[in-house]
């Protein structure tokens, strides 16, 4: 995946100027920076939600993401939410189990941390070329973060991944390389 000389402004506010990012096949990178510096804008350009004002982008076709919001179907069970991304029910159940989630539980009865782990499972169940994690561990306690990070690394091993976080320890734990914006 490659972004070259990406520029993006919103009205009169320049968010990205000549931004470059290369993610090699199988590489895990973390993107860090203060709020408002363009981390989510970079992800939105990669996912095709935003178009750059200028620059070049070479983006893989198969992307799976965890957003800052969980974006779950609240009236569905955990397994139904995960199976929206893959019909592989066995793999879906395996990931949910590793994340400590009861697959039959309805999402609207779950805590915030449980919902977060369902969102993670839904991302990880896909066989993607690039995985994107935007503040993926927010709202999780330290023990649950450690479990989730282990599962994330297991299912993205050998795959390209971008992990946006404000937590330097998460970045160091996940990434081969840290990019500051």
Word description of this protein:
The protein has 181 residues and is an alpha/beta fold. The strands form two sheets. It has a five-stranded parallel β-sheet with strand order 5-6-7-3-8, sandwiched between helices. Helix 4 runs parallel beside helix 5 (142-156). The chain is globular and about 45 Å long. It contains six helices and eight strands; from the N terminus they run E-E-E-H-E-E-H-H-H-E-H-E-H-E. It has helices at 39-46, 78-83, 89-98, 112-124, 142-156, 168-174; strands at residues 2-10, 13-22, 28-32, 54-58, 63-66, 130-134, 160-164, 177-180. Helices cover 33% and strands 26% of the residues. The mean pLDDT is 95.
Which keywords apply here?
181 residues, alpha/beta, five-stranded parallel sheet, three-stranded antiparallel sheet, 6 helices, 8 strands
Summarize the topology.
Layout: E1 2-10, E2 13-22, E3 28-32, H1 39-46, E4 54-58, E5 63-66, H2 78-83, H3 89-98, H4 112-124, E6 130-134, H5 142-156, E7 160-164, H6 168-174, E8 177-180
Parallel strand pairs: 3-7, 3-8, 5-6, 6-7
Antiparallel strand pairs: 1-2, 1-4
Helix pairs in contact: 4-5
């Amino acid at each position: 995946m490659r972004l070259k000389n990406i520029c993006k402004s919103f009205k009169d506010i320049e968010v990205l100027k000549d931004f470059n990012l290369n993610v090699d096949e199988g590489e895990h990178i973390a993107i860090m920076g203060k709020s408002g510096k363009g981390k989510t804008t970079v992800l939105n350009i990669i996912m095709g939600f935003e178009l750059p004002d200028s620059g070049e982008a070479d983006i893989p076709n198969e992307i799976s993401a965890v957003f800052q919001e969980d974006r779950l179907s609240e009236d569905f069970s955990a397994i139904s939410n995960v199976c929206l991304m893959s019909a592989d029910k066995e793999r879906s159940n395996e990931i949910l189990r590793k994340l400590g989630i009861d697959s039959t539980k309805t999402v609207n009865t779950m805590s915030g941390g449980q919902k977060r782990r369902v969102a993670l499972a839904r991302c990880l169940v896909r066989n993607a070329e690039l995985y994107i994690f935007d503040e993926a561990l927010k709202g999780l306690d330290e023990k649950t973060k450690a479990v989730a990070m282990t599962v994330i690394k297991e299912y993205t091993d050998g795959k390209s991944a971008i992990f946006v976080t404000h937590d330097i320890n998460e970045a160091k734990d996940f990434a081969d390389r840290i990019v500051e914006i």
